[in-house]
Amino acid sequence: MQHYDLIVIGGGSGGVRAARISAGHGAKVAICEEFRYGGTCVIRGCVPKKMMVYAAHYHEDFHDSQFYGWDVSVNGFDWSTLIRNKDTEIDRLNGIYENLLKNAGVEILHGSGQFIDANTIQVGEQEISADKILIATGGTPFMPAIPGIEYAISSNEIFHLEQQPMSAIVVGGGYIAVEFAGILNGMNSDTHLIYRGEQILRGFDDEVAKHLQEEIVKKGIDLRTDTNVTAIELTSEGRRKVTLTDGTLLEVDCVLFATGRAPNTGDLNLGAAGVELGAKGEIRVNKESQTNIEHIFAVGDVTDRIALTPVATMEGHAFADTVFGNKPRLADHSNVPSAVFSQPPVGSVGLSESEARNHYGEVDTYTSSFRVLKHTITDNTERTMMKLVVDATSNKVVGAHMVGPDAAEIMQGIAIAIKAGATKADFDATVGIHPSTAEEFCTMRNKD
Questions:
Q1: By the 8 A CB rule, do 408 and 347 touch?
Q2: Can you give the pLDDT at residue 29?
C-alpha cells in the first residue's frame, strides 16, 4: 500500500491548491478526483457560466451600438457554437490544473475516494493511506422531491444541452437562478423566473435585491415571487407542462432548478473514519479547517461556510501553509467580496444595511442611482445603483454594494479599501477617475 503525507479527496480549486502548496512544502501528496480536475467552478460553474453571460449580453450591445453610429446586422445566435467553444476552453483549463499538480510533484489519481478507516482511502481498486487527509469534494445541486422532477435539469446539465431551449422556467431566487434566467433571457429564450420567497437574492442588501428585481423585469424576464412549482409533466411533444402553486400551467422546453446546493459527502463513507457531519450534511470543522478527527481536514463548499471558489482556494492554501509549511495561519472569512453575474451584475462586500444596524446600531447609508454614461445616448433604461454602509460612530465603511455594469471589477478594488479599514472620509478624500462609474463611490456626500 502506498503511504503519503497527505491525501486530498477532490480536485476542485480548494483541493488542488492545498495539494500543490503542500507538495511545494516538501510533502508527499496524492490527490483523487472522480470527474475532471478543476471542480465545479472550472468545469460546470463560474467559468463556463461567465462565458454564457458574455454571450447573452451581446444582444444589448448590438442594439445599443446603433446609437453610436454602427450599422450592425445580426443574423441570429448559434447555441452549438457557444457550447463547442466553451467546451474547448474547459478542456484547456482542465489540462492546466492537472499540469500544475504534476509540476508540483503531486500524484494524480482518477477515481472517487472513500474512507476504509481514518487513515486509509480506497480509489477504485487501489488502497492508499496517509498521515493527513483533506476532504475537498465541494457541493452538488439540490433537487426537490416533486412529481416529475426527472424532467427538470440542474445547473450541471444546462452547460451540455445540445439545443437552446427557446422557452424555460428557472426555479429559485439565489444567484445561480438569477444568473441563468439572465443568460436565457439574453439569448431571446422566453424566460420565467419562479421563486417561493418575496424577493430574490435573500441575504443580499435589500435595496440591491429590490433594484435588481426591477431591472430584470424591465429586461423581459417573467418574475413570479411567492410562487413555486408543484409538478412537472412531459407532453407528447417532449415539452414540460409545469404546475405552479397558484394553479397556473406553463408549457416550456426546459425547467432548470437552482434551489440550492448540498455538501457532497454522501459517497465518502465518513462513518468509517468517524468524521462528524452537521445538520445539512456538511463536514463540521474548526477555524483551522480541522474535523473532529485530528488528522482529517476539510475545505471549500463541503464545509458549508462561504461557498465561493476563492474562499475554498484561501482555505486550502492556509491549510497547506499551516500543516506542512511551518507558517500557521487562519483563513480569514471576514469581508469576503462576492458578485452575481446577473444582467445587470451585482457586486458586494461587507455588511448589508440590516446586518450593519444589527451589529453597530447607528448606521449611515449613502445611495446613488443613475444611468451610466454609456446608456445616456441610447434608449437603454437600465439604471446603476451604488450604496455605502457606514458605522456612524467610527465613520468606518462596513459595506459596499453595486448593481450595474462592471460591478464585480469595481467591487474588487473597493473590497481592498474595506478590508484595510477605510473610513467614509478616506473615500471622500480619494479623487475619482472621470468619467467613470466607479468615481461615484468617491462622490456620494449626502446621507440617505
A1: yes
A2: 98
Q: Identity (one letter) of the amino acid at 288?
A: E
CA distance linking residue 415 with residue 46, whole number of Å? 20
- Do residues 176 and 259 touch, judged by C-beta distance below 8 A? no
Residues 285-310 have pLDDT tens digits of: 999 999 999 999 999 999 999 999 99
Q: Which cell numbers in the block locate residue 58?
A: 451581446
φ, ψ of residue 263 in degrees (nearest 5): -60, 140
pTM tops 0.90, yes or no: yes
Structural domains of the chain sorted by starting position, each given as residue range(s) with its CATH number in brackets: 2-140+262-323 (3.50.50.60), 149-259 (3.50.50.60), 338-443 (3.30.390.30)
Contacts of 360 (CB under 8 A, 6+ apart): 391, 392, 393, 398
Nearest to 275 by CA among 294, 301, 300: 294
Residues labelled as active-site residues: 434
Summarize pLDDT for 381-425 with one digit per residue, the tens: 999 999 999 999 999 999 999 999 999 999 999 999 999 999 999
**Which amino acid, one-letter code, is at 192?**
H
Render pLDDT for 16-28 as a digit per residue (tens, 0 to 9). Answer: 999 999 999 999 9
Written as nine digits, the cell of 432 is 475619482
